[in-house]
Amino acid sequence: MSMSVTARLEALRKKSSIEHGRDYWVKRGESVDIEFDANFIENHKGVGKPNLAKMNDKMLQCGDKSDECCSSSQGIKSRSKEDLSDDLNSEIPDSLVGYSTLPSQVHRKAVRKGFEFVVLVVGETGLGKSTFINSLFMTDIYSDKGGNTSDQTKDIGTHSVVLREGGVKLSLTIVDTPGYGDALDNTECSEPVVEYVEKQFDKFLEAETRVKRVSLPDSRVHACLYFIAPSGHGLKRIDVEFMKRIHDKVNIIPVIGKADACTKEELDSFKQKIRNQLEEFEISVYEFPRDEDEAESSDIRAPFAIVGSNTVVEDSKGRRFRGRRYPWGCVNIEDQ
Hey, is 205 helix, strand or coil? Predict the structure, then answer.
């Protein structure tokens, strides 16, 4: 009995599928002899151009499950399962678990919530503390100072302001210590400052240990800017005693106020004296991390010489910047 046209087309399609599979491995430079059993051909009925990934999967099954697909003498004879597994893995895209997005999630949460930063400013009167803070954050934080600046009191005062830059919100709190070191007897002048710092720790601990926690703003002091007079003779006794009492509670950043009163050579000598005293009295100060692209020779160790100014000046070349004008020229406070 002659075969019908439909049967002949079906046989031709099956043969085409087998030949495509054979040509695939021959093009790869493999010497193979592919034999398919009746079950394999039955499962690939109606396939015009074969899907190579599915054919590989089926050939693996023929090699692993002889009782379901083919006998041990059939299926794939010379192709190893390891090679076929490599081909399969190359076809499967990498799956996404989700932990790769954690940095962006933390970033979005931090930006939405904002940041809180509390800075303690300590130093004698006349060292440019208020001017430096205003120029550092480019805002007038001490605008609510009032007219009672002549009364030097030892009460701790705070100045809060909310700053926004590039979509990031910063809740800044400046803790000021007016009248520090201005009395004849400065033996107990550091006591109010130490009590304030410890009180903030106690307040935060109490809020955390409650049965029903209450969300409170973080009022703990994160850093202390300690202003040193540009005398050139090193630290005073009051400076050493204060830093010894507070260095284990707050990150101390010693700075030399009004550093433009000294020459570069005098500043280098003054800094070295202060570093020797800090090491002698075992006072820990905050060490800023060094950037990867920063030169090893750059001096980023405390103390830092600073100059503050809220005035915009113009030099002889027409450049405008915040600085201070002198008979011999101008000082740019943002220039290292």
Answer: helix
User: In one letter, which amino acid is 45?
Assistant: K
Residues 57, 61, 62: CA angle, nearest 5 degrees: 115
Q: Do 79 and 30 meet the contact criterion of CB atoms below 8 Å apart?
A: yes
Contact 277, 234 (CB under 8 A): yes
Radius of gyration from C-alpha coordinates of the chain: 38
Find how far residue 292's CA is from the centre of its chain: 14
Residue 261 has a CB neighbour count (10 Å cut-off) of: 14
Task: With 0.85 as the threshold, say if the pTM is over it.
Answer: no
Residues sharing a CB contact under 8 Å with residue 106, sequence separation 6 or more, in sequence order: none
Q: Is 228 exposed, middle or buried (0-12, 13-18, 19+ CB in 10 A)?
A: buried
Burial 186-207, CB ≥16 within 10 A → b, else e: beebbebbeebbeebeeeeeee
pLDDT in tens, 253-288: 999 999 988 888 999 999 999 999 999 999 999 988
The end-to-end CA distance of the chain, in Å, is 100
**Residue 303: cis peptide before it, omega within 30 degrees of 0:** yes
Q: In this structure, are residues 172 and 163 in contact, taking their beta carbons and an 8 Å threshold?
A: yes
pLDDT, tens digit, 9 for 90 and up, residues 202-217 = 998 888 888 887 777 8
225 by Cβ neighbours in 10 Å (0-12 / 13-18 / 19+) ranks as buried
